[in-house]
Amino acid sequence: MQFNRFQTLSDIFILIGLVIIGSLAVACLFALLTMPYIHLSFIEILGLAKSNADPKYVPYIKLFTTVTAFGTWVLSAWVLLRIKGKSVADSWQIKAPQPSGVLMFLPILFLALIFASAFLLNLNAQLPLPESIKHFTSQENKKMMEDFLRMDNTNQLMVNLLMIALAPALFEEIFFRGTLQRLLIELFGNVHYGILFCSFTFAAIHLNAEQFIPMFFLALVLGYVCYYSRSIWPSVILHFLNNGFAVFVTYYQHQLPVAKAIAADNYTPPVVTIVLAFMVIGGFFYWLIKKHQILNTPTYE
Fold first, then answer.
1. pLDDT tens for residues 214-267?
2. I want to staple 97 with a disulfide (CB 3.0 to 4.6 A). Which of 23, 84, 154, 231 is the partner?
3. Which distant-in-sequence residues (6+ apart) come within 8 Å of 276 by Cβ?
4. pTM of this prediction?
5. DSSP assignments along 65-78, one per residue
6. What distance lies between CA 253 and its chain's CA centroid?
7. Measured between alpha carbons, how far is 267 from 3 in angstroms, rounded to an integer?
8. What residues does each domain of the chain span?
9. Number of alpha carbons in the 13 Å side-chain half-sphere of residue 30
10. CA dist., res. 56 & res. 137, Å (int)
């Protein structure tokens, strides 16, 4: 048992190394391949995302970020599995969820998560954190995200749904729930410790102290949904819905007052709605765990 945990810890360190290598390798390769088309030097391309770039370069930066995210999360996890000689489909649980009815409840669960997250966001804002920690997210990252989310037409909305909502949802779920969570559960020998630590890592890696609590809670939900449904797809769908909701809210913030309030993190749901939201989330997991116990098959094979 001790040897197995040492081996798992080694795999985690290898994975961290592959994340760094994958991110740098894909970023550099993409920059080299696209240099002739955007008429910028290699150094200028790598510095675009770290500066107030010309608006004409925003679509390119968005594509650059998406491709780099693939190298960071998906390529690193895939290489680790190749090194270990494990099946990608089995490890990432690319299969239909059990029970199949879990997909039917996801829209209701997501609606409850919206109100629960709004409450947790307000709770996060009330924490007596130092200003240096509250605003840990760099102004450059905030400015870049604002540029990414600026949309003037439905075509740009569709592009953002693909690059800001779908791609990160798929890439991050493959890495965090499909790979890292499994390793952490093996390391701790405990499902809950593994999911907790993976969720904490997921929230911390986004470097946003102002949204840490709701992000951590969302990660917990994604982690448990993936584990108890024996499939990565429910967590991918929920993650996509969460990202897509943020994109839609930004797009309609100048037309709908409630969207503007949500986009500015100023929306406070009624107490009754908050209580109902947490009841729905609790009821969903009560049902899912019971189904998991009835099926009585291994979650990780």
1. 999 999 999 999 999 999 999 999 999 999 999 999 999 888 888 888 887 788
2. 231
3. 112, 115
4. 0.92
5. HHHHHIIIIIIHHH
6. 23
7. 50
8. 1-86, 89-301
9. 20
10. 24
Q: Can you tell me the distance from the alpha carbon of 48 to that of 171, in angstroms, rounded to the nearest whole number?
A: 22
What are the backbone dihedrals phi and psi of residue 279, each rounded to the nearest 5 degrees, phi first?
-65, -40
Rounded to whole angstroms, the Cα distance separating 140 from 118 reads 25
The Cα 41–Cα 263 span in angstroms is: 36
**79 alpha-carbon distance from chain centroid:** 20
Cα–Cα distance list, 199 to 45, 100, 176, 185 (Å):
32, 25, 8, 12
Assess contact for 235 and 173: CB atoms under 8 A. yes
Q: 21: exposed, middle or buried (C-beta count within 10 Å: 0-12, 13-18, 19+)?
A: middle
Residue 153 amino acid letter:
N
Task: Find, among 58, 37, 281, 35, the residue nearest to 150 by Cα.
Answer: 58
Question: In 3D, which of 218, 210, 216 has the Cα closest to residue 266?
Answer: 210
